[in-house]
């Protein structure tokens, strides 16, 4: 293997083991790393020091955008571009547009949430180096993995390996890129 | 505030004695009732005091109904996270019997005093704007099978009787489980809630129709029960948030309440802020769009005087749009604002207050001046509303605190209590 490896992978037997190991990796200052578990481990995001997701910001932007777009369209067409007197009503009033604007806001907010989730996760992602490891199969069943990526500024093959072994990682191996 | 489940303690504290607080609350309540009573000594003021008293009663009853609904929703969804909060709501339900007793003066006044002291239809000789009397009004004649003081009193008492009965069932099962830990109590609560939630929905709709909507009996809105329900839940949730934070600050909820509990209750508060707006706008928009006088007059009373000038209720209505919906909705979008006690506490109190404002907006314009216009919002009636809310609130708080001291702090043998204590995203 000539090229720089993707990172180091370590196995843990229990959820508690990976939970405490994650705390140690977090405290060691690593940024580009992840835990792979067969089921959601409660509190693991906190132990990893993961910040809250940015998906709500996408949803908010979508919601506000949809609402403003609907109101704006009704205002532009009704009050500026094509003034038409209908039943003596005002050219533009926000009240009858409200249901449409709210619906479009909700639609765009939900689309924004889905798009935001895909963008933040890097979807569509057809390949990931971890898939090359035969260990990924057991991590879908009863094992827990920690992967520290080589692009992390603190990554050092020897030191990182020592850290993973010290915190209880079994079978620490390089992961081919 | 503990940030995650790992810090939840295994020690289950017993409820601290709350007797001194209870007596203080009762004192405040009695002072409030006495001050409201003083209002009756002012000549020509009886109607204003009675309507204010109705506001006080309906406000605290709506909070108790909201708690009742939230408890049943908790049981029906088999929720785990809200077990600790549910116990506080169960204490809140103890107020129903006192609310019934405090409601009786309104009925007694209508029976033995002026029939139209609160509800204009209570006196068939009550003169309407057009000069005809209630008795001559075909619409009244059509609605008179319900809108007469006999049927009305029976309905009102039955509503309270139902709430008292179902509350007693829910409380009994929950408190009994503290002692023996039997699963049958949880199953009993499923059964009570499954039938009770529909009946409570019907009874709270009946309450909204009879007590509030009938104040302008010419007007009808089928969504009115939903509107009342949304205020019930919002009031109960804001009280729930404040009680949780109060117990945390006192130390009782240390190791029980965590960030995620506040986040979850905050999301409920946020969701029902949107729900209230949805229902209130639906009612407004349907009436605005169809634009027929039989319906629009209800909003016109709250916007314009007969001479076309804008009255104070116009601004109250706008205040509701912004203060009861827009501001809390935007602020509650933020995660931080839901979980930091110093931010969510004032917001919960804010919503608690705007629920009251919403009820005032719906009830108080029944008081008319000599020209048939709604009496201004800023008036002496606000004083009687304040004393009424204080009076009824003191009694209800006393009832809550008495119940609080008599049981465990949290349902320690609930099958889902561990799920609650370790509640986490």
List the helices and strands and how they pair.
The complex is a heterodimer of chains A (177) and B (425).
Chain A (H helix, E strand, L loop, with lengths): L6 E6 L2 H13 L5 E4 L7 H5 L6 H27 L12 H28 L14 H4 L4 E6 L7 H10 L3 E6 L2
Antiparallel strand pairs in A: 1-3, 1-4, 2-3
Chain B lengths: L18 H21 L6 H31 L6 H10 L3 H17 L25 H6 L5 H32 L3 H29 L11 H27 L8 H32 L2 H9 L10 H21 L2 H5 L1 H23 L17 H26 L10 H5 L4
Structural class of chain A: alpha+beta
Shape call of chain A: elongated
How would you state the average pLDDT of chain A, rounded? 89
Oligomeric description of these chains: heterodimer
Rg of chain B, Å, rounded: 22 Å
Key traits:
heterodimer; A: 177 residues; alpha+beta; Alpha-Beta Plaits; 4-stranded antiparallel beta sheet; 6 helices; 49% helix; B: 425 residues; mainly alpha; globular; disordered N terminus
């Amino acid at each position: 293997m000539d090229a720089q490896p993707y990172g180091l992978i370590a196995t843990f037997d229990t959820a508690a083991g990976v939970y405490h190991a994650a705390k140690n990796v977090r405290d060691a200052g690593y940024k580009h790393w992840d835990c792979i578990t067969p089921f959601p481990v409660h509190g693991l995001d906190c132990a990893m020091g993961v910040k809250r997701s940015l998906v709500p910001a996408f949803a908010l932007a979508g919601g506000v955008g949809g609402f403003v777009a609907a109101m704006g369209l009704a205002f532009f067409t009704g009050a500026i571009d094509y003034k038409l007197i209908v039943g003596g009503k005002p050219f533009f009033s926000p009240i009858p547009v409200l249901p449409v604007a709210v619906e479009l806001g909700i639609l765009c907010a939900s689309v924004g949430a889905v798009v935001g989730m895909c963008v933040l996760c890097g979807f569509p992602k057809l390949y990931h180096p971890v898939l090359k490891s035969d260990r990924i199969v057991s991590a879908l069943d009863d094992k827990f993995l920690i992967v520290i990526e080589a692009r992390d500024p603190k990554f050092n093959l020897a030191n990182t390996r020592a850290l993973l072994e010290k915190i209880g990682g079994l079978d620490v191996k390089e992961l081919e890129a | 505030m503990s940030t995650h489940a790992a810090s939840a303690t295994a020690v289950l504290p017993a409820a601290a004695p709350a007797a001194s607080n209870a007596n203080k609350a009762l004192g405040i309540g009695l002072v409030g009732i006495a001050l409201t009573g003083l209002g009756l000594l002012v000549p020509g003021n009886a109607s204003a005091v009675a309507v204010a008293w109705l506001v006080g009663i309906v406000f605290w009853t709506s909070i108790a109904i909201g708690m009742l609904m939230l408890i049943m929703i908790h049981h029906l969804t088999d929720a785990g996270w809200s077990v600790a909060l549910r116990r506080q709501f169960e204490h809140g339900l103890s107020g129903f019997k006192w609310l019934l007793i405090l409601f009786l003066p309104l009925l007694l006044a209508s029976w033995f005093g002026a029939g139209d002291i609160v509800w204009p239809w209570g006196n068939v000789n009550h003169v309407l704007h057009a000069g005809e009397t209630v008795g001559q009004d075909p619409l009244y004649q059509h609605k008179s099978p319900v809108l007469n003081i006999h049927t009305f009193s029976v309905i009102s008492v039955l509503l309270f009787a139902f709430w008292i009965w179902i509350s007693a069932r829910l409380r009994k099962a929950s408190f009994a489980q503290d002692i023996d830990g039997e699963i049958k109590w949880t199953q009993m609560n499923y059964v009570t809630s499954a039938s009770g939630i529909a009946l409570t929905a019907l009874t709270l709709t009946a309450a909204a129709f009879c007590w509030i909507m009938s104040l302008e009996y010419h007007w009808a809105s089928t969504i009115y029960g939903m509107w009342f329900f949304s205020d019930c839940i919002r009031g109960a949730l804001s009280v729930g948030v404040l009680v949780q934070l109060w117990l945390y600050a006192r130390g009782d909820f240390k190791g029980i309440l965590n960030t995620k509990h506040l986040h979850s209750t905050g999301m409920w508060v946020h969701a029902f802020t949107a729900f209230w707006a949805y229902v209130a706008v639906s009612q407004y928009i349907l009436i605005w769009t169809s634009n027929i006088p039989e319906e629009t007059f209800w909003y016109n009373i709250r916007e314009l005087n007969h001479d076309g000038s804008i009255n104070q209720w116009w601004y109250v209505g706008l205040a509701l749009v912004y203060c009861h919906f827009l501001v809390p909705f935007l602020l509650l979008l933020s995660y931080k604002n839901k979980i930091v006690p110093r931010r969510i506490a004032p917001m919960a109190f804010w919503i608690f207050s705007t629920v009251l404002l919403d009820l005032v907006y719906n009830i108080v314009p029944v008081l008319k001046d000599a020209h048939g216009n709604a009496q201004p919002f800023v008036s002496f009636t606000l004083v009687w509303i304040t004393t009424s809310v204080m009076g009824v609130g003191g009694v209800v708080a006393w009832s809550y605190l008495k119940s609080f001291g008599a049981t465990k702090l949290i349902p320690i043998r609930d099958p889902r209590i561990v799920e609650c204590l370790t509640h986490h995203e």
